[in-house]
Known about the structure:
- The protein is α+β, with helices and mostly antiparallel strands.
- The protein has four domains: 109-187, Alpha-Beta Plaits, CATH 3.30.70; 211-391, paz domain; 470-594, Response regulator (Rossmann fold, 3-Layer(aba) Sandwich), CATH 3.40.50.2300; 600-836, Nucleotidyltransferase, domain 5, CATH 3.30.420.
- It is globular, with a radius of gyration of 30 Å.
- The model is unreliable at 1-75 and 350-357 (pLDDT under 50).
- Its main location: cytoplasm.
Amino acid sequence: MADDQGRGRRRPLNEEEPSNSRGSDDGPRVKVFRGSSSDGLRADPRLESSRERGSLEEASRRGSGQQERKPRGDQYDYLNTRPAELVSKKGTDGVPVMLQTNFFRLKTKPEWRIVHYHVEFEPSIENPRVRMGVLSNHANLLGSGYLFDGLQLFTTRKFEQAITVLSGKSKMDIEYKISIKFVGFISCAEPRFLQVLNLILRRSMKGLKLELVGRNLFDPRAKIEIREFKMELWPGYETSIRQHEKDILLGTEITHKVMRTETVYDIMRRCSQNPARHQDEVRVNVLDLIVLTDYNNKTYRINDVDFGQTPKSTFSCKGRDISFVEYYLTKYNIRIRDHNQPLLISKNRDKALKTNASELVVLIPELCRVTGLNDDMRSNFQLMRAMSSYTRMNPKQRIDRLRTFNHRLQNTPESVKVLRDWNMDLDKNATEVQGRIIGQQNIVFQHGKVPAGENADWQRHFRDQRMLTTPSDGLDRWAVIAPQRNSHELRTLLDCLYRAASGMGLRIRSPQEFIIYDDRTATYVRAMDDCARSDPKLILCLVPNDNAERYSSIKKRGYVDRAVPTQVVTIKTTKNRSLMSIATKIGIQLNCKLGYTPWMIELPLSGLMTIGFDIAKSTRDRKRAYGALIASMDLQQNSTYFSTVTECSAFDVLANTLWPMIAKALRQYQREHKKLPSRIVFYRDGVSSGSLKQLFEFEVKDIIEKLKAEYARVDLSPPQLAYIVVTRSMNSRFFLNGQNPPPGTIVDDVITLPERYDFYLVSQQVRQGTVSPTSYNVLYSSMGISPDKMQKLTYKMCHLYYNWSGTTRVPAVCQYAKKLATLVGTNLHSIPQSALEKKFYYL
């Protein structure tokens, strides 16, 4: 394996050319096929329709965008959604605190600006690299800090004339006339502004000798080897630079790339050698893997395995047929050892979506290193613990790493020169911002209320508090299924459950017991069918381990076929020393699955419906996904919810079935309250920043129009609506005196974006590592409430997730939606029975 990787050359970071989407042309070009293969290369029949005739080199040039350039700024999303009537998005409620961040200010001169020019050559030059070479002869005139992609020129220098004409000569001694036409100054509100800033940053980071893998920078020289699991961790940085409220800020987050020391070829060799099963088994183990090719440091997703081709297959390259073996030897000095291995197919979906074509990349298995973790690895406690010792950095460790990064940039001559060429200077100290800590919220139980506590954890209060609502008859008709050999563990579990539930006000009567004599999946399913004849309110299954197939079958039988809530408990759980604490949590879950509420919060707003929506892809079919919507029915007298699920496209960010789901929730609310809600807060999860424009222009406007029509149907004015995008995967970090800030910490200035009505909220407490704030972007609001109330309402909603007696990172309706969508996409693969819509069956 070491020899395999030693044969490839890694590509150094090179971001000189803005036009290249993933690096410089100096790196090797990928093998891209659009059309039918040449005579020597047999095409996979499934790919035949998406290919056009063309040589390898021509296709790769098309793939890199050298003929038709698209601005890289497309990946930076700028959308002005800040309401014009919003004077200030800053709140005032709470205790002010000074927080350190992982941002550094880029200081510029007061008159600093980026000038945009368009460059033409006469006679015309087809090759962009030749254009760059000819223009580089005038670097002194352009200023040492400039960016040129072959057509567009960006610099800080403004020429006096609108059109500046220069002359240049190529290495072939051909004279050219260069016309540099002034286009304008780039506003900080334009995507191109972000594009240029990030290119400047990448150029300055070249001096750190980091390597570009995907979109982030990593340091393989500082790799951490975890040899017992055949893995490596590459430390690196995720960086972004953009205009924030008042300054241009560089955001830096510490990240790690998980690299396995095995190749796809190694995985293939482990698969069954039985010819009848080999190809199917290879596809099961290989498809959808993310791999890294060391010779160009690019990552790909494997979409197919072509057993009809081998490295001996040929393709047309520069007018002649060449085999993959010869190509890699000539191009990269890499010898392919096994000439009979099949080839891998990767479809570049991002490019395919932009060009309406299929960009297909052919890869060699023994040159593809596997990245990331599979499900088996994630369930390996020893492996995850070994990794977390390096990846879960506490605040002090993270701050030290950020200072080291800043120090390296400040003291690397190449990096300093690039920033100075652009009249920029990086602040040596991390940016500080004034935040606020919202006061503790009260948790309402049946006979009183208690403060959530400084750590927002009220688990201990269940010792002397009763749950808010419980069934009047208790849990009187239910069943348990358990293997005969685990009868003792079943007795232990039930005894603890009776005691824990009794203290919380839930009376649990003795269940109907179904004893089975083996732990096969089919046996549990048959026992559930037997249980269903007595119409139980709930079925508890005691299982020997976390077998995914058994779990999915139990859940599918209960939720899709029978409409009976189920609870699955493992034998290992019953042997835990903290069984009473676990029994308390199980008791809360049972109460929720019956449709009742453990606790609620104090909410002053009447007529409010909060909605959470999220999407999860199907693990069985990547083309399918399931969208789950959770809506609160009552948050003042009781805390009840309605859920619904629908199938949607895995590739469409817009949920076309969203309105029918909202309409179902509205009608359920109307049935319960005899009126429609007067206020709706919609928390939209599962959206990337690049999809905000689509969301704002289509989904938000569609919801507004449909709500107006729905309320007009019953002669009512439209409800007050707030549409808020929730983003969990943020690279922002806050520190309070070198520690994690407490739950309830709000940041709504300095590092927020001027074009948005947004804020950050730290709502949860973490026991390990650094806490991650959640970003909330109010795309639309007619609520008429102050930023203080919007922030406090959002924090209150984080107290209502009944699978955990503490606050969650996102509002409970979002967490419920994610839980339900994941359950359906991973285990059920079908829509659950509508009779369960008012129960928390998905907990």
